[in-house]
Amino acid sequence: MTAVMIGELAQIPMGEGRTFSVGGRRIAVFRAYNDEVFATQAECPHLNGPLADGLTGSGTVVCPLHERAYDLRTGLGLNGECTRLAVFAVSVRDGDEIWLESTDPRTPAERAEP
Ligand code: FES
Prior knowledge:
By secondary structure, this protein is mainly β. 4% of the residues lie in helices and 37% in strands. It has one helix spanning 108-112; strands spanning 4-8, 16-22, 25-31, 37-41, 55-56, 60-62, 69-71, 87-88, 90-93, 97-100. The strands form 3 sheets. The protein has a 4-stranded antiparallel beta sheet, with no helix packed on it. FE2/S2 (inorganic) cluster binds next to loops.
């Protein structure tokens, strides 16, 4: 998939997330308080909680259903379980356009990049 614009930054208040449908796939996009943007699978790997409705900190999200936390950069679960979110490369262009670079999840090496 080539990069696709999925929305505008103004659709996501700082510290919150929103779910977008991209090519039949649901993607959660989060906007941190420093305007950094992250994209992950939309449903929690535990029991499909809506991650975009969770609490978003600086680089983390806490699922609203059972409060499992995930690192938004790596997708790693932060509660000790062996769960991991699929994370996707996302960028903001022209100041407000949210672009999903690919619907292929990032590789572990790519996840390690800032
Ligand atoms: S569904 Fe997310 S923690 Fe249970």
